[in-house]
Amino acid sequence: MRWLLVKDLRILRRSPLLVALLVLYPIVIAVLIGFALSRGPDKPEVAFYNGLAGTPAIVELGGERIDLTEEGSRLFEEITPVPADSRAEAIQKVRDGDVLGALIIPENLASNLQSTLEPGTVEVFYNAEDPAKKEFVENTIEAQVQRANAALTKRIAEEALELLDLISEGGDYSFLGQDFDVLGLARAERILSDVRETLPPGSPERERLEEVIDFGELARENLAFSDDVLAVVGEPIRVEATALEGGSTSLSAFAVALAASVSLMFITLLLAAGMLAIEREENAFARLVRGLVSRSALLVEKAGLAAVCSSAVCLLMLAGLGLFVEIDWGRFPLWLGAVIAGALAFAALGLAIGALTREVRAASLLAFMLSLPLAFLALVPSGAVGPALYDVIRAVSAAFPFKPTLDALDAALNDAGGLAGPLLHLAGLAVAFGVLSRIALRRFA
Amino acid sequence: METATATTIVARDLVKRYGDRVALRGVSLSAGRGELVAVIGPNGAGKTTLLSILAGIQRADEGVVEESPSIGWVPQQPALYGKLTVEENLMLFARLERSPDPHATVDHMLDLTDLGERAGDQVSTLSGGNRQRVNIAIGLLGRPEVLLLDEPSAALDPRQRERLWEFILRLAGEGTTVVYATHHIQEADRHANRLVVLADGESVFDGSPRELEQATGTTGLDFEQAFVEFLRQRGH
């Protein structure tokens, strides 16, 4: 078997174009899928005109000074601002296609907020020449504006709460540099109660005073609920998300596992199917199995060759991706296990393809035709299709190695779920496809 | 040409079916040391099936093959790796044959086939004749007592055929039993000690070329015409 392996490696070495395509094509596909899945344009450029520049951007609400520039900085977490000197210049940059959109902060924003009579308004301009761009700009800029808005609302609600507490309980209050002692409902109620005791029982003044005292008590009790109410106003809908299945893998980390799985699948399938089929195309199969090598040993050799080569490329790719995406190198033994298990299962599938098709071109075509649908099927989320169709998709995905390889790599790379289940699944598939390829080899010569 | 002295391969009552089609119907064959046996017959007669059963590529559904300790097999299409050189192909199969000294074996085969000068050339660059010589050399790596060749001279030009037969006759002269299937009836007449004629999976003749001519009961025909007449008389 060793000499067969040496022979195959020698043949691969003498086919540099084929090997380059075999390695580069899946990597390019994998990286493209990874990028498509993980992100849109990275921090798009947005023209920014700040009408508050040069003027104090401080809003005083209930004695609290809120710096609008600081609050507004949240807008720039997801975009790269391109400064503009005027509103018109910012809009022109959008028209010229220099920037994705323009964000205008008007000069009256601070005064409007300060007055609390009108809401502060910012303007957004963008080109909507294609639906994808329109969707992206709307989602990115408006989401960021809403985040800033929500943060500001929360701050205002907090200030309002402090004011209400002052009205309820009384205390010191500063405004425009002057200190005030606010009486508050509680102290007013105590004063009025003391006065009531000085009035004769049944007197009309005493009855009217009791009405005022009751009102004060009622108002204070209701104000006690105001913090809950204002908390709800500041954040009307709060999300408590619980993942029932899967882990907490980020999209970019998942994209790494996906890219590795796609790359592993393409290389292993094509190599295993092609190198087995080539034995028949070169008419060497019959000569080999005439007592020189058993059919099973031939399959083991081809599976080993495909698995070792594809695992090496996959690990190199992961190391390369590690330069751009954070990967936990402490989990390397787990990656290695997942990559090897996936490669062996793909190799067994590749052998079955090679044994069934019996020629290199047909084997390569079938491997390609099978690979992409398997990858896409594995990514169909629950709820995207009807329950019956989703069950079918799950069953089909489970019958091939892509989904369990993706699960295993996700678990190994990102600590998302258990690794043992996918590894056992892959072992089962490797055995099943190995048996299928051995049976198909009976009619191979 | 050495006379046959001892039987090196025997097959009895071989039957092979492919689904409903019967490829061989009770075919028997034997050959002695140094004997040259040609298996001839029309297309689809079962020649390749018979040789592949003798070579152990396929199993007969019925019948027995008493195999020689070593059989070399040379398929019709050269079974070689085009990306490997002549020497690398020979070395690979010598190692797989567990040759005790693969380098010496390969050198010997390169001398035997006069391919020493082309040893470093990739097989894909060789002519059809030279590929067939490498193909035969691989069949001989295990120093077999019996060499089975399926259409060895197919696709070769007359000069290449002549060189090939010189090589095969030399092997037979050294004691190797050679059983070959061929469409070239004149080659069977010229080189074989014995003919086995198959038609529709049946063995319809086993004897020398002269005996086949006599069996037709006609005179003045060349060997190919005599063969066609023989088949016609037997309803094929």
Question: How would you summarize the topology of this molecule?
Answer:
The complex is a heterodimer of chains A (445) and B (236).
Chain A lengths: L1 H12 L2 H23 L6 E6 L7 E4 L2 E4 H5 L7 E4 L3 H9 L5 E5 L3 H7 L7 E4 L4 H39 L1 E5 L2 E5 L2 H13 L6 H20 L2 H9 L16 H31 L2 H5 L6 H27 L10 H26 L2 H19 L8 H12 L3 H13 L5 H21 L5
Helix pairs in contact in A: 1-12, 2-10, 6-9, 7-8, 10-12, 10-13, 10-14, 10-16, 12-13, 13-14, 13-16, 13-17, 16-17
Chain B lengths: L6 E12 L2 E12 L3 E5 L6 H8 L7 E5 L4 E4 L11 H11 L5 H11 L15 H12 L6 E5 L7 H16 L3 E5 L3 H7 L2 E6 L2 E6 L1 H8 L6 H11 L3
Parallel strand pairs in B: 3-7, 3-8, 5-6, 6-7
Antiparallel strand pairs in B: 1-2, 1-4, 8-9
Helix pairs in contact in B: 2-3, 7-8
Task: Describe, in short, the structure shown.
The complex is a heterodimer of chains A (445) and B (236). Chain A is α/β, with parallel strands linked by helices.
